[in-house]
TrEMBL record:
It comes from the Bacteria. The lineage of its organism: Bacteria, Pseudomonadati, Pseudomonadota, Betaproteobacteria, Burkholderiales. Pfam families: DUF1501 (PF07394). InterPro entries: DUF1501 (IPR010869), TAT_signal (IPR006311), TAT_signal_bac_arc (IPR019546). PANTHER family: BLL7424 PROTEIN, DUF1501 DOMAIN-CONTAINING PROTEIN. This is DUF1501 domain-containing protein. PROSITE patterns: TAT.
Length: 386
């Protein structure tokens, strides 16, 4: 069990207040921190299509395999002579132009089957096979940081697998109930708990979290980004956060659905960037999914479960303006099992390299500690600004 004996931190267990009382809400950990760096992991649940995200428009196999699903890249942002960015990723394109966005193509975790549950388990646990690890790679990363900087937060009703483990972390989600009508009710509850050593401390902590989160919001993507930024921008706030997105499983009608998914992701990133203000310069955001989609379109205007996809690194700390990775091509003989984009870069390698550079820890050490069950994790050339 994680230790709670910390001299410089407040451990908050309640975080939401409603008109009908208080919720036993996800908790939040705050701490004084010795680093200005922030690391944010955004998971795309449902297997996002990497070939629709960073489009290999100049690969002759792309139009052949996608047919009517192939995007007209006339409106897309040309990244280089091979790749273009989906036109709905407007803010991401701006970050790329500002050299604050980097894409890694043909990337995958060690998982090679096509189950969402198993794939997300491997992605979040950092294991080599489903369910072999009980804790998550992000929690093991937290444990590598100095105690004063080792706190993380998930903007989620529960702590996701990636953040579970021995290191103390927390999560926060706004209440679905109406806000308390005025502060008088909150003050009376405060007085009610004043003589109870345990409840008084918990209630006070909840009020502190409430003040940091700001007004309760219904979480659309932009509001989720704003909420995360309010925590991360605090001088004594968490240095690591995880955000969850869903809806990436596009077996049918992929074109309009992916456009909406990208607009939502773009809005969340834009809100995060704006909310962080000057802190954005010290922030690294990793966006990744459990696996990719089939290279060819199916008969219902979508794609099915595949293997390799694309990952994004965004943020002011990123040495961006690049698409990296070993592009395997889309020729029939180059596809994994004759149907999927061939994985050429390990997602573990990307995580170890980006997280290590972010917090000034040797990426090789991060790889050994965060991914102890994965053999041959190779670190990547420099990803962040020195």
């Amino acid at each position: 069990m994680p230790s709670r004996s910390h001299s410089r931190r407040h451990f908050l267990q309640f975080a939401a207040v409603g008109a009908g009382g208080f919720l036993v809400a996800p908790h939040l950990v705050l701490a004084q921190a010795a680093t200005d760096r922030r690391f944010v992991f955004v998971i795309q649940r449902g297997a996002a299509d990497g070939l629709d995200t960073v489009i290999p428009y100049a690969d002759p196999g792309y139009a052949r395999l996608r047919g009517a699903l192939a995007l007209d890249t006339a409106a897309a942002t040309r990244l280089d002579g091979l790749f273009a960015l989906h036109p709905a990723l407007v803010e991401t394109a701006r970050l790329y132009a500002a050299k604050e966005a980097l894409f890694v193509h043909a990337v995958a975790s060690p998982y090679r089957d096509r189950s969402h549950f198993d794939g997300q388990n491997v992605l979040e646990s950092g294991g080599s096979a489903p369910y072999e690890a009980k804790d998550g790679w992000l929690n093991r990363l937290v444990a590598l940081l100095p105690k004063a900087t080792g706190e993380a937060i998930a903007i989620s009703p529960t702590v996701p697998l990636a953040l579970r483990g021995g290191a103390e972390v927390g999560s926060y989600a706004p209440s679905a109930l109406k806000e308390a009508p005025d502060d008088d009710l909150l003050q009376r509850v405060q007085q009610l708990y004043a003589q109870d050593a345990q409840l008084h401390a918990l209630w006070s902590a909840a009020m502190e979290a409430r003040g940091m989160a700001g007004p309760a919001v219904r979480q659309n993507p932009a509001e989720l980004g704003q909420l995360a930024a309010r925590f991360l921008a605090q001088p004594a706030g968490p240095r690591i956060a995880m955000l969850e997105t869903s809806g990436w499983d596009t077996h049918s009608a992929q074109a309009p659905r992916m456009a909406n998914q990208f607009k939502a992701l773009d809005a969340m990133i834009a809100a995060l960037r704006e909310g962080l203000g000057a802190t954005w310069a010290n922030t690294t955001v990793l966006v990744a999914t459990e696996f990719g989609r089939t290279a060819a379109a199916n008969g219902t205007g979508g794609t099915d479960h595949g293997t390799a996809s694309v990952a994004m690194l965004l943020g002011g700390a990123v040495q961006g303006g690049r698409v990296i990775g070993d592009w395997p091509g889309l020729a029939p003989g180059a596809l994994y099992q004759g149907r999927d984009l061939q994985p050429t870069t390990g997602l573990d390698s990307l995580i170890a390299s980006a997280a290590g550079e972010c917090f000034g820890i040797e990426p090789e050490r991060v790889a050994r500690t965060v991914f102890p069950r994965v053999a041959g994790v190779k670190t990547l050339p420099r990803l962040l600004r020195a």
